């Protein structure tokens, strides 16, 4: 560790977040947690916009904030760099794209002090990333079961043990026990770390007293790109770290294969194409029912957008999953010092 220990270290990986990082830091500084027991470490991945300047100005005005470099430029390398330089008994991983209520840090610490879980988190309240109908639809998709399956923190589950939480709050000793974030996983690194926590006998708690606001993607093309990349890295993680396998992540790939494979075998298997037709019919019924539900709950204009958005999202994710399975061998192996047995003391 670096110098005297404190209670909480907030760690934030950042790259080109000039639109959000100021609001994020303001919301953290407005928390009711004692400032003398708090440090905020922002790991910048060589931002090319004004993000770094904004954080540097905050750091000049608030001694709790430190700006460090993340030469790796990706989330897990930034998180690991911040953890190594942190001094907190508790480490709260935050996201630059988010804002936090005034009791967020104290609620996380209170839950961790109960001793019932190694990692805690709360509900992710998704807001549109732009003032457009498409951005509003994206935010609604990310909170609907037809879009995200049984992802508890997105659906508003409360007060239960789960497989993962968004941007978790950790006991420091968790990293000593299971290691740091996998730098070879450009995405899905949070889920993989939480899988290791569960595999070691630890528990992850979704608290009813914790929530944060997350600003989602602003456009449909960006959503589809994200869905493809998420699917790609989820599948690669399955191959490399089987402990990360989760049934809900399989749904887009299962749908894609159920539609395509019977058609491929239809020349040699009589009536195989009828299976594809049955799957497609069931999917369309669920698609329309979900879209109608969203439209009547929020905005009737969603009847035009949601069917195509659900379909595009599922397709992009399914293709990404298949691509990830086919290219899993292309992942570069993590540095040996980031093995699952590494402790913070060894990394310092």
Q: Your description of this structure?
A:
The chain is of the alpha/beta class. The chain has helices at 21-29, 51-61, 75-85, 104-113, 133-141, 145-148, 152-155, 172-178, 189-199, 220-240, 247-265, 272-297, 302-326, 344-347; strands spanning 6-14, 38-44, 65-69, 88-93, 98-99, 119-127, 160-161, 169-171, 204-215. It folds into two domains: 6-218, Alpha-Beta Complex (Spore Coat Polysaccharide Biosynthesis Protein SpsA, Chain A); 240-327, no CATH class. It is built from 14 helices and nine strands. Strand 1 (6-14), helix 1 and strand 2 form a beta-alpha-beta unit. Helix 12 (272-297) packs across helix 13 (302-326). The longest helix is centred in the last third of the chain and has 26 residues, at 272-297. The termini are close together.
Helix/strand layout:
Blueprint: E1 6-14, H1 21-29, E2 38-44, H2 51-61, E3 65-69, H3 75-85, E4 88-93, E5 98-99, H4 104-113, E6 119-127, H5 133-141, H6 145-148, H7 152-155, E7 160-161, E8 169-171, H8 172-178, H9 189-199, E9 204-215, H10 220-240, H11 247-265, H12 272-297, H13 302-326, H14 344-347
Parallel strand pairs: 1-2, 1-4, 2-3, 6-9
Antiparallel strand pairs: 4-8, 5-9, 6-8, 7-9
Helix pairs in contact: 5-13, 10-13, 11-12, 11-13, 12-13
């Amino acid at each position: 560790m670096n110098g005297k220990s404190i209670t909480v270290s907030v760690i934030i990986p950042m790259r080109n977040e000039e639109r959000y990082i100021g609001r994020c830091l303001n919301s953290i500084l407005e928390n009711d947690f004692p400032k003398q027991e708090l440090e905020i470490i922002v790991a910048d991945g060589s931002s090319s916009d004004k993000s770094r300047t904004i954080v540097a100005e905050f750091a000049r005005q608030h001694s709790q904030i430190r700006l460090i470099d993340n030469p790796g430029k990706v989330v897990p390398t930034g998180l690991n760099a911040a953890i190594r330089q942190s001094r907190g008994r508790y480490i709260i991983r935050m996201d630059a794209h988010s804002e936090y209520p005034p009791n967020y840090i104290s609620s996380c610490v209170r839950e961790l002090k109960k001793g019932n879980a190694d990692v805690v988190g709360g509900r992710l309240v998704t807001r549109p990333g732009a003032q457009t109908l498409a951005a509003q639809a994206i935010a609604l998709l990310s909170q609907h079961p037809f879009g995200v399956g049984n992802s508890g923190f997105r659906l508003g589950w409360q007060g239960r043990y789960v497989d993962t939480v968004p941007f978790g709050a950790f006991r420091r000793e968790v990293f000593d026990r299971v290691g740091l974030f996998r730098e070879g996983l450009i995405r899905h690194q949070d889920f993989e770390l939480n899988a290791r926590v569960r595999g070691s006998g630890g528990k992850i708690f979704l608290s009813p007293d914790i929530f944060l606001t997350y600003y989602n993607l602003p456009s449909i093309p960006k959503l589809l790109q994200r869905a493809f990349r998420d699917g790609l890295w989820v599948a690669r993680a399955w191959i490399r770290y089987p402990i990360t396998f989760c049934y809900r992540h399989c749904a887009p790939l299962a749908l894609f294969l159920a539609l395509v494979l019977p058609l491929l075998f239809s020349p040699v298997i009589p009536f195989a194409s009828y299976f594809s037709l049955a799957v497609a019919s069931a999917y369309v019924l669920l698609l329309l029912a979900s879209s109608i539900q969203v439209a009547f709950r929020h905005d009737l204009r969603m009847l035009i957008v949601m069917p195509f958005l659900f379909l595009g999202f599922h397709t992009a994710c399914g293709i990404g999953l298949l691509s990830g399975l086919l290219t899993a061998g292309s992942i570069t192996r993590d540095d040996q010092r980031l093995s699952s047995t590494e402790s913070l003391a060894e990394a310092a």
